[in-house]
Structure formats: structure tokens, C-alpha cells
Amino acid sequence: MKPATNNFRAILVMAAIGSYLLWSAGAAIPLLRLDLGISRTLAGAHNIAVGISATLGARLAVPLINKFGRELVMRTMLLTMFLGVIALSRDAAPSMRRMMIQTGTQALVGATAILLISASLHSGHGWRLPIILGAVILTPISLLNIWRVKFLVPDPMLVHSTDAVKKSDHVKIITYGVVNSILEIGIGFWALDLLVSRDAPVALGALGSAILSYGIAVGRLSLALLQPKSRNVIKFAVSAIITGALIICGVGDPIPTMAGLTIAALGVSPLFALGAFRVSESFADADNRISRYMMGTAFSYGFAPFFLAIVFDNFGYVVGYASLIPFAVACLVLWKVNGPKELPVSH
């Protein structure tokens, strides 16, 4: 088996393990709100620390890799998702197929984590048990798995100054990451709370959140298999998000709400990987561009739940989900302005 294939599989396992912990922790915040009887705004504030640390990690990863080498950085920081994408960007041209496989696998494992939370709630064991078991069992596996990666010394031609990306491009790339993450967080993070607010039992709401997450996984893996043109993917994504948001805003029962969430989830499913591919394809400084993109997505991941919670608490879910429609349009615009003039062939 080729070393590149071994590396990709090892990174895939690490990213999947990280996603179990990340997605289960994300699903726990609405449940924590219900347990403590606190507002969505206060519950959303718990995620801000994640946003701060992840943003710093995304900003510092590339300079640290260039200074100390990939092996030391990865084995000490275990920035699984970001460094997985960075590793892929070291190819001659970034592979959207591999990005979809990686993020699709992460979503699949993350959805399973939420499904286990739903089953634990239904059986009367609470929502904390699957998270604790996941942390105890999977963290050592992740630490052992990193030793399977065969680290290569990067080509000096690929090592760039962090100033290689123009300041005007910084803003566009970071904004693109922020918008993509707002859409993904906006659709999925408070889905469980939305379903419960529309009279779904808590366990059923967790199941609905898991189904939504499986929709994201299916969307990503299907795109990895079919490999459509990226321009068709972004058009589908924006259309599905808008359609799903309109359904959510137009109904009040949990079942049609779940249908709207699933449609919107299919729309947001390719956004993260598509964005990473878009900002890096055919650019020599792909690592720095992805770093800026990850800064945007990481910041939004931490802060978007808090700001969305303020909207939901004060104006309701209809206004909150309707507000995602302009972001979907902005996503299309930012996809256009952040790509190369001539598209390379993805592999």
C-alpha cells in the first residue's frame, strides 16, 4: 500500500475520532440547557472557549509546522481536522474528493455519537454516558493512531511566509469561512432544541438531530463518489439551504420541521470541504489560504451558537432560520470571489 494512502487512512481515523468527541459535545449543549433550565444564550456561551482556542490553533498551525515540522506539531497538538486538510493541500492540486471523504466520514461518526446519546436518553441512562465513554476509549486510540502517519519533510518550494496571502484576500477568505460555518451551525446546532420546542420528546429530538447529521454525512460521501463540478455543488447547496429554511419557517409540527432540517442539512453538507478546496485549488500558498479559511470557520463555530441563541431567545426560531437565507446567498457570492480564474482538474 502506498505511504500516501496509509497517511490518508490514519488521518481519516484521527479526524473521525475527533468528530465523535466534537459532535457529541455540541449536541450536549442544548441538552445541558434543558437540564439546567437556562436560556439558549447562556448555553451558547459555553461554546465560545472552543471558538477562541480553535481560531488560535488555525492561525498558529502553519507557522509552527514551518518552524518545527509536521511531526512534532501533529503529535503534540493533535489538530486533527485542520492538519488533515493541510496534509491534503500538500498535493500538487488539492483533492475535493478526499476532502469530501474525510469530512463525510467525520459527519458519519459524529452522527453516530448523537444517535448513541438519543439511545442513552431513551434507555434512561442520560446523555453524558456516551460522551464519557467516547472520551475514555477513543482518545488513547487517537494518540496511538498518529504513530501510523509517515511524516515527510515538506518541499521548500511549498513553505511560504504567512504574509504570502494578500491582506485583501485575508478578509475574503476568513469571511467565507465564517459564513460557511454560520450556515452549518445555524442549521444543525440548535436543531434538537427546535424539535423539542415544537413538542417532540427529548429522546426523539436527539434522534432527529442524529438523522440530520446522517444527512450531512450522506451528502458529503455521495459527492465524493459522484464527483460533480464544484459550481454545480454550490448551486445545489444554496438551493437546498433556502428550501429547507423556508419549510422550517412555514411549519410548526416536529415531523415537517425534521423534513426541512434534513433538506437544509443536505445543503450545508458540502460547504466546509468545498470551501477548503475552493480557497486552495491551484494556489501555490494553499496552506496559508486554508489557515485563514479555518480561522473563519473556527471562530464561527465557537461564537455562532451564542449569537444565534440571542436571536432565537428574543425573536424566535422563524426569524432565526429566515436570517440564514441571506447568508446562503452570501455563501454563493464568496465562493465565486475566492476561487482561481482557471480551475485545475481535481483528483
Automatic annotation (TrEMBL):
InterPro entries: MFS_trans_sf (IPR036259). The chain crosses the membrane at residues 12-32, 44-66, 72-89, 101-121, 127-147, 173-192, 204-226, 233-252, 258-280, 292-312, 318-337. Keywords: Membrane, Transmembrane, Transmembrane helix. It comes from the Bacteria. Gene3D superfamilies: MFS general substrate transporter like domains (1.20.1250.20). Signal peptide: none annotated. This is MFS transporter. It comes from Candidatus Fonsibacter lacus.
